[in-house]
Amino acid sequence: MSMTGLLHPGAVRVVNPKSRAVIGYAFSVETERGQLQRWLLFEHPHNALDIEPPPEHMARWSLSDWQSNVADLWRPGSFYVWAQADVYRYHDVPKQTTWAKIPPASRLPAPTYPDVGICDFQLDPTGGRLFQVLQQRATGLVVAQNESFEAARVALNEAMPVEARGLAFVVNGLLDPASTEYWMLPAAYEPAGKAAAVAVKTGAQRAKSLQEFINLANQAWGPGSRFVITGCINYCGETVPAAR
């Protein structure tokens, strides 16, 4: 699972927001569709985590460096997640798949799931609680089923006087073999883990459907915006997965 829509290419660090303990790492590479992310989590994040720049020794890692070090980083019971983030942009970007308006749910492109083994997913099913993704200059909302978008937006506006806001909708969770995320990211949003830290946490509001999410996301859709559809496949176990 993506957790923040897009990551800064290369390695990033995943931190528990309360204890400040490092609970994992992620590594992303650019692809023709957007980016492929690999997440190694030492423990269940319980729907709250911060994404930060990597430690200095990981800052210049290549994908082969990441893959060769996964076994050394692995702890029994860890999670390994593959997440393909397909990116669609507002129509001002030439020679790319662009939209003047986000299509209705029935016409959205299908998510792309990485061709690997299946296990679990980072986010627990929450019964439709709101996930907030907070950044210095941009704020994203991860919204699951049965939430009130207007109440969520008002609550976040009152709590976070920021310059830009994005929205996201999550389908399925930790106990499902695969999950999907739909993100509307504003122009001011920077990929997580580059410089400004990104924080993810749950909220108390509810949303009804993916279509209701799209209706709200279209109100904020404009130049520089990106819509990200992320397909996630997961592994959880005592030993490191064969595919990395």
Question: Which key terms come to mind for this protein?
Answer:
mainly beta; 3 helices
Overall pLDDT metric = 76
Tell me the helix content: 10-25%
Q: Which strand order do you get reading across the main beta sheet? A: 1-2-3-5-12-10-9-8-7-11-4
Radius of gyration: 17 Å
Counted beta strands: 12
Count of individual helical segments:
3
Low-confidence stretches: 119-130, 143-164
What percent of residues are in strands? 35-45%
How many angstroms does the end-to-end distance come to?
A: 15 Å
User: How would you sum up the global shape?
Assistant: globular
Secondary-structure element order, as H and E?
Answer: EEEEHEEEEHEEEHE
Major sheet attributes: 11 strands, mixed, barrel
Structural class: mainly beta
How are the elements arranged and paired?
Blueprint: E1 10-15, E2 22-30, E3 34-41, E4 49-52, H1 63-73, E5 78-90, E6 98-99, E7 130-134, E8 138-143, H2 149-159, E9 164-171, E10 178-185, E11 198-202, H3 210-220, E12 226-237
Parallel strand pairs: 5-6, 8-9
Antiparallel strand pairs: 1-2, 1-4, 2-3, 3-5, 4-11, 5-12, 7-8, 7-11, 9-10, 10-12
Structure overview:
This protein has 244 residues and is mostly beta strands. Helix content is 14%, strand content 35%. It contains 3 helices and 12 strands. The chain has an 11-stranded mixed β-barrel. The protein is globular. The two termini are 15 Å apart.
